[in-house]
Records
---
Amino acid sequence: MVSVTQTERDRDIIHATLTQLVVANRILAREGIIDNFGHVSVRHPLRDDRYFLSRSRSPEIVSRDDIMEFTLDGEKVSDDPRSPYAERHIHGAIYKDRPDVNAVAHHHARPVLPFTMVNQPLKPIFHMASVIGTNVPVWDSQDEFGDTNMLVDSMEMGHSLARALGGGRAALLRGHGAICVAQDLRAVVMISIGLRDNAALIQSTLALGPVKYLSDGEIEKTSAMLLGEMPLRRAWDYWVARAGYSGL
Ligand code: MN
């Protein structure tokens, strides 16, 4: 009986995680972070060595049936013949290198892109963006891999990107986009939106005058507050509603 109960509980936990992953896909699409490309994943809630990610599909139309399970090396766990994302190695490499991370998003949000190309730091300028952290490093695939198709399509490239990310919450990919990581899907959505909004605000502020960024102490205190349970729940409920869901 105990094992049956355990199995049912495990199934419930996985079901809740997969539902949240589908909703996170739809939210990131609705909020304009992810467009026809880009993706978001979650670590398996019961196995540190696995993660869940949609098959190669635009996040706006991802549903439960699209979700696949992968090893951290990016191998499909089932014999599902459908194609995975070429850039899934971003997710596995980060889950390997960062035991504290349980959710990863990769996107090409346009306001972020200029900061991947010029020497202008993407530091938090307003309180809601404090969650991106004090330092958002830029990873340039050219440094280690030369001329490529610009996709992070091998574990070697994924680990290189993960090294650039270090212990941070976000990193930029030169001429390509960004990655955001967090302890759960709600937080990775908050960081992704904060990164995009902060990038846009720096650009509009620079048109008026020099930027005053948040101090490192403000970033630390404000992000610790925002990544707490109450703000995450409140923000998530708002995004869920905007994405067209109710009663979840
Ligand atoms: Mn990409």
---
Amino acid sequence: MDEHGYGPEQAHQEREQGREQARLYALRQLNLLDTPPSESFDRITRMASKFFGMPIAAVSLTDADRQWFKSRVGVEHWQIPRFQACCGEVADSSDVVIVPDLLESPTYRDSLLARSGIRFYAGAPLQTQEGYTLGAMCVLDTQPRDISEEEVAILQDMAAMVMAQIEMQHAFGRIDPLTGLPNRSQFVEDLDDLLRDAPGQQRYALFTEVLDIAQASMLNRVMGPAYLDELTHVAGRGLQETLGIAQRLYSVGPCQYVHLVEGNDESELLDEALRLRQALMSLDLIREAPVLVRPAIGVAPLSLGAEGAADSLRTAHSACQDARQTESGAGVYSHALDARYRRHFRLLSDFREALESRDQLRLVYQPRVELGSRACRGAEALLRWRHPELGEVSPVEFIPLIENTPLATPLTAWVLRTAIDQVKAWHDQGLALCVSLNVSACNLDEADFAQRLLARIAEAGLPLAAIEIELTETALFSQGRAAWQQLDTLEAAGMRIAIDDFGTGYSSLAYLQDIPAKIVKIDRTFIRGLDVESRSRTLVKSMLRMAHDLGYHVVAEGVETKRTCEYLEALGCNEVQGYWFARPMEAAAFQKWLGELR
Ligand code: C2E
Ligand code: MG
Ligand code: MG
């Protein structure tokens, strides 16, 4: 014993406690406790009761303070206290326990079992491959009796059958049937174990994706789903062979694999990723695939304990997606890039609340000024979002995100409602202004978009000339003819439509003949260069000439200097919008600005 009174007795006790904790953890991991009965276990207990000719048989699991029966014959309860339960002794000793007569046993004479009429008990341990005893396969009788060695061996066989069943059920759902590799659930579980055993240590996850979604769906179309299955299988085997059998590889999705490595030299890990990638590329099935298969491998650090398993998988996948964009197809996780995606995700999730809040969204107005007269007949309404925690978020960041989601509909509806209310207020004050609104491509997918817009304007008692809509070239072209019908409806009713960001859409100029629009807004990337670049001048000059020849009204966006303004005036541009005249302003500031202009 040392000076603190710590002796071998106490050390032994602590070891025992540690072992019991590990045993309970193993038991909980199997998710068996408090689950409904299952025929696969009941079959074995029935057989045991019949074979031994005893009224009671059970598969009994030893929890912290109770015996819980996964399966039982001849007992009514689901559980009994662990204290003085014979099965508890099986768990403690990890050995067969036989009590020929409970009433003769000093330990069990006064136990609950004995008091309920049980005389005989035999239990064989239910042992995992790691050596933890979960409980017992037991048979009980109301009379004292003996049990032969042969019978004990049979009871042990039955316990082994129960364990095989438990382990099979556990493996089921943890092995990917295509590759035979452990799957995502197993990855999550193993990572949790690692968290427990090596908290705070550094590991890296290598996430391998043989094809991206677009390539996968292309292959599916060309070759059918069986081909993808085969690719998943072959690539998994190829990777495992390259890694060596000792390295655990997980199959976490179609053609997606992940494995964990130790180490801290990122450039070495990157070399390893390149080596694996090379090995994949040299597989016959990949070399001979009917579409170009480009595997990508991302390397992501995880500090065990800092993040949950699901998040580790997410960062590793994110690293892999980024790696896909690189020439080498392999890359190390970038915090900055990931932070951007997280922010995007946050913006997307928070936007609905913004729509419902009263103070997060607002419209600002940027004047459009007529060249020649220098009169301002209207403004473009631009959306602003003040996020309660992130502050001002630019529409350049959030609009493209929202546009790909169903939220694009309520977003535009909000803009239309707010702008129409504002324009109505101005008209009521005698300011006959025209406000142009930005509309997303997907809004044209809403079958009643045009009708609703016209109805709203009519309800407000505004003339159609009070509202204009802007659509980008890309928007017009991504939607096809059906969407154009909406525009035809609007145009037929007399509403003016503008092609926004003109010149940036890479689309054919031929469409200008057909499109139901009257206004072209030349993108500010062309206008910006007018002061200095002769190329921009040539481009803008030709755009203006062509647009005018086709009868368009032309607006130049992003006019920042007096010189640009004068140059555009000389070319005959109709209207300009830009910082040279005014930045986008709140409605009241715009109205004040207008008053000073007049
Ligand atoms: P846009 O429709 O082309 O709007 C013009 C953008 O150019 C505005 O950016 C405006 O502030 C900026 N701008 C105007 N004059 C100048 C200038 O002289 N110099 C420079 N550097 N920039 C100038 P903003 O407000 O950040 O909006 C960006 C884009 O977001 C808009 O481009 C539009 O595509 C989109 N957006 C804004 N509000 C809405 C909306 O309510 N609905 C939809 N669907 N999109 C919107
Ligand atoms: Mg616009
Ligand atoms: Mg624009």
